[in-house]
Amino acid sequence: MAAGSIEAQARLEARPGEVFDYLARLENHWRLMDASVDVLSLDGDGAAGPDRSVVRMHGPLGIGRVAHTRVLELDRPRLLRGVAEIGPRADGGRRTEGEVSWRLQPDGSGTRVTLTARVTRAGATDRVLLALGGRAWMAARFGLALRHLAARYSAEPIRG
Questions:
Q1: Which string of b and e fits 111-142 if b means at least 16 CB within 10 Å?
Q2: Model pLDDT for residues 34-48, shown as the tens digit of each residue
Q3: What is the pLDDT of residue 12?
Q4: Spatial distance between the Cα atoms of 71 and 133, rounded to a whole number of angstroms
Q5: How much is the CA Rg of the chain, to the nearest whole Å?
Q6: How much is the average pLDDT of 67-82?
Q7: How far apart are CA 157 and CA 119, in angstroms?
Q8: How far apart are CA 57 and CA 23, in angstroms?
Q9: CB 26 within 8 A of CB 33
Q10: Around Cβ 77, how many Cβ atoms within 10 Å?
């Protein structure tokens, strides 16, 4: 795992193609979360359905962030990659950006899933939030997503 990355892994009792097909539908990503994430919109015309979303993340101490996400790459059955932009800049751009990837590798009769996020640009507020527990909070959300995904295929995560 690269410095500054957030990562979780699980082994699922399903073939990579089956897991990929589920994850290729962006709306399914948000089904893997809990009440800490609200989907505000799903949009786009990607081959697998919507390829953009806007979500509100609710963190500890009432801290909330709105993320604009979009799918960048689908390489069946091994990779899904996207980007999230958080917080407006004065010029209308986004202040913080991160890349998220789902890597799927055959593992016996199942699939090893690695979910990784890497902050590629962070505004001052988000740098402070990440340093004060935001990374740990995101890692916990990743672990939760993989536990929900594993439950879908009746297997337990290996770490996260």
A1: bbbbbbbbbeebbeebeebbeeebbebbbebb
A2: 888 898 998 987 676
A3: 93
A4: 27
A5: 15
A6: 94
A7: 24
A8: 20
A9: no
A10: 19
